[in-house]
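Design request, tokens follow.
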């Protein structure tokens, strides 16, 4: 089975596929916000900047990553007097978190903003980049056997924001939906193999690394823990967000009727 490798693409891929599913909109803004918060934690764990210990996010290194959004998340975690609780962190996305990623994608020529009837829409201006994001998820949905860390993270957060239902519709695509959900539930992740480094998009380990196998195993375990915990936190936050939105809609309908 072909492996996805790396997790640095995770946030952008989720946002691009959401735009496609919602015809140029971000969909339920709060839901993608939870997924992006969780994706940042996974990416920071892969870079060994944080660890998830119990229900807390612990900063292991405050050294900047060079990624504006990740560095913002890392600085925000470090500002807490004590390690923040995972559920509390994921459930309160940074203001316009999706906007920051969209602006970066626009600056890179991947998307462009359009205004229609007083509403903003986003159009994909780099089809090959979108095809790359879709192919990555298709590879996960059509895979068999143990998943790698990138696949586990992608499957879990894709299910949180409903990409499994929107991209693989109908009875004929049920196997793909089931596969994504199976991976999202955990327990199918492969053990680290030589050259399988979650922080490196190429999967390459430094040739001169002493004790590389042990260090790689520790990083793999920490990233696996972050994927499980962050995905579940995002799922809980999304479920609560949908419940609150449904309640507000019901109240508004009742008042207006």
């Amino acid at each position: 089975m072909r492996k996805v490798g790396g997790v640095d693409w995770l946030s952008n891929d989720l946002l691009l596929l959401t735009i496609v599913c919602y015809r140029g909109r971000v969909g339920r803004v709060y839901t993608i916000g939870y997924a992006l918060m969780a994706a940042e934690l996974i990416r920071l764990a892969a870079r060994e900047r944080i660890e998830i210990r119990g229900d807390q996010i612990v900063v292991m290194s405050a050294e900047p990553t060079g990624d504006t959004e990740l560095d913002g998340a890392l600085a925000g975690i470090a500002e807490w007097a004590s390690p923040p609780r995972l559920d509390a962190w994921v459930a309160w996305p940074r203001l316009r978190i999706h906007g920051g990623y969209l602006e970066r994608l626009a600056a890179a020529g991947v998307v462009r903003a359009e205004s229609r009837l007083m509403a903003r829409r986003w159009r994909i201006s780099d089809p090959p980049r979108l095809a790359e994001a879709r192919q990555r998820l298709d590879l996960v949905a059509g895979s068999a056997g143990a998943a790698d860390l990138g696949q586990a993270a992608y499957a879990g957060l894709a299910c949180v924001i409903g990409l499994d239902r929107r991209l693989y519709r109908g009875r004929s695509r049920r196997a793909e939906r089931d596969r994504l959900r199976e991976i999202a539930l955990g327990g199918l992740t492969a053990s680290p193999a030589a050259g399988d480094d979650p922080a490196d998009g190429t999967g390459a380990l430094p040739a001169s690394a002493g004790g590389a196998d042990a260090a790689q195993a520790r990083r793999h375990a920490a990233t696996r823990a972050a994927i499980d915990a962050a995905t579940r936190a995002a799922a809980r936050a999304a479920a609560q967000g949908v419940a609150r939105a449904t309640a507000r809609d019901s109240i508004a309908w009742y008042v207006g009727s």
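Comment from the thread starter after seeing the answer: thanks! The first helix runs from residue 10 to 21.
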